[in-house]
Amino acid sequence: MTDTIVARGLVKAYGDVRALDGLDLTVPEGTVLGLLGPNGAGKTTTVRILTTLLRPDAGSCTVAGVDVLRDPQRVRQLIGLSGQYAAVDEHLTGFENLEMIGRLYHLGRRRARERARELLERFNLSDAADRPAKTYSGGMRRRLDLAGALVAQPKVLFLDEPTTGLDPRSRLAMWEVITELVREGTTLLLTTQYLEEADQLAHDIVVIDHGRAIAHGTPDELKRQIGGERLELTVGAQEEITTVTAILEAIGTDRPTVDEETLRVTVPVTNGPTALIEAVRKLDGAGIAPTDIGIRRPTLDDVFLQLTGHQAEDHSTAPQREGARA
Amino acid sequence: MSMSPLTAISDGFVVAKRNLIKIKRIPDLIIFTLVQPIMFVLLFAYVFGGAINVPGVNYREYLMAGIFVQTVAFGSGLTAIGLAEDMQKGIIDRFRSLPMSRAAVLLGRTSSDLVNNALVVLVMTLCGLLVGWRIRDGFVEAVAGFALLLFFAYAMSWIAATIGLSVRSVEVAQSAGLIWLFPLTFLSNAFISTDTLPGWLQPIADWNPVSSVILAVRDLFGNAPAGAGRGSGFPAEHPILLAVLWSVAILVIFMPLAVNRYRRAAAR
């Protein structure tokens, strides 16, 4: 398998701030790499460099075998880019937006029009094709922007936070579209702030912080590394803890951790729902009624806490944690 | 892979079309762009027309060329604002990621702004004719006058493009794109004869590109009687030559500068 996107030692500094500090990336052909990190970690800078929009201070990169720094114009013919905010012209209709992009890819007038119609159809925008894009919803604009990235049927696609700011339904729709593209063989580099999104879409994940890769692996490897799903329960009385610990030890993949103060017992599990049902059954059998029980999935905050010892800054979208636990 | 000039022109055409669609979709925009020059013609004709006296000329006819040139110069602000807006919205990023000519977005923007400026000149011409301004020279000279006016407007657009791609927001573009035009257009022979200025200021005003363009247009429209209110020296004797040279010089300097800015442009 050949590597479609390769970056070595990328460095980019803005004044004193090193947005990228020696980043390495490899994306094999036909796979999806999720670049995961909080705001300001260097995700967008990476995408901008790989898509010819920005020159790094140091390092090298190739896309589909073409040197990005030496032959940017050739790279532009091979890639599609959809940015963080939908870069559609709001005064143009959806059709006009796509036709314009087709013309600028030099598809020719007729082919540009055909392609615009195909893409509007595919992204469920046919009904809105002749309306100015400013009348579109956020999800529709993002779909139009993604359609713009696909006009020239690129084999390599860069999506910078494709679902940030979308409502859950639009996010799911976007995931479906992306999954389909990948099934057709597109190589994809995707940035996201959501672990769940990387988990859904990516074959490989690189976690970056302060412009450096701090972890790399498949979603499963990464989750194992930071301790996947956990079953967490709180009991009402101190005496129950020994029994509960024994029950959870049998269910979990590792020894349970006990917080004596809050009477909370936590254990890593492989399959949350199955473990939860089993635990409830056994607790019921033992006559213990926990005051709280549930599955906890690792969030981006957990990943960061685990990997860096600090939380993901600016991560306002994550649910508030109750406090750090061992 | 290198881009041929033909590709630049056809890509520029696509971008210009996109900009013109916007003018069509927001008619209020063009209406307000037109109201200002109409107001200028009327205000200057009726308010200053009687107050300022340039000996030996019909002042109302004398100042029309000044208003024309000042208005198209300020019209270049549109180029700065339009590009800053495209940059802020990420549209420049989109264009820069496409395999299109690096000059196309700028060619397209300056061309569509030229169409806009031509429309403004047309409306001002009609308005001027209504308040008594007349073209006193031949048809060919008049056409040359309008052509020179628009050529200068086009050159100014490239200065504005460089500014628009250098600033950090649309708001800054709005002031940075316009503020330098006040001294540039007022320190000229637009509304007064440069003979009335303090001695040290006279050569500056006489050599001001805006003065040359105004005087050239004034001559071509037959609104500048020989000897009256022309300033002095070489600029007074060869306004058309200077107006063309200035405009060409601006293009030679600012076209590559603006394209270079575009290559490095970063969304905020």
Break the fold down into its secondary structure elements and pairings.
The complex is a heterodimer of chains A (326) and B (268).
Chain A: E1 3-14, E2 17-28, E3 32-36, H1 43-50, E4 58-63, E5 66-67, H2 72-78, E6 79-82, H3 94-104, H4 109-122, H5 138-149, E7 156-160, H6 168-183, E8 187-192, H7 195-201, E9 204-209, E10 212-217, H8 219-226, E11 229-234, H9 240-251, E12 257-259, E13 264-269, H10 272-285, E14 292-296, H11 300-308
Parallel strand pairs in A: 3-8, 3-9, 6-7, 7-8
Antiparallel strand pairs in A: 1-2, 1-4, 4-5, 9-10, 11-13, 11-14, 12-13
Chain B: H1 5-25, H2 27-48, H3 59-75, H4 77-88, H5 91-96, H6 104-130, H7 139-166, H8 170-179, H9 181-186, H10 201-207, H11 209-221, H12 234-237, H13 239-264
Describe this structure in words.
The complex is a heterodimer of chains A (about 325) and B (about 270). Chain A has helices at about 45-50, 70-80, 95-105, 110-120, 140-150, 170-185, 195-200, 220-225, 240-250, 270-285, 300-310, and strands at about 5-15, 15-30, 30-35, 60-65, 65, 80, 155-160, 185-190, 205-210, 210-215, 230-235, 255-260, 265-270, 290-295. Chain A is built from eleven helices and 14 strands. In chain A, the strands form three sheets. Chain A has a six-stranded mixed sheet, with helices on both faces. In chain A, strands 2-1-4-5 form a four-stranded antiparallel sheet, with helices on one face. Chain A has a four-stranded antiparallel sheet with strand order 12-13-11-14, with helices on one face. Residues about 315-325 of chain A have low confidence and may be disordered. Chain A is of the alpha/beta class and about 325 residues long. With about 270 residues, chain B is mostly helical. Chain B contains 13 helices and no strands. The longest helix of chain B has 28 residues, at about 140-165. The interface of A and B includes residues 52, 92 and 101 of A.
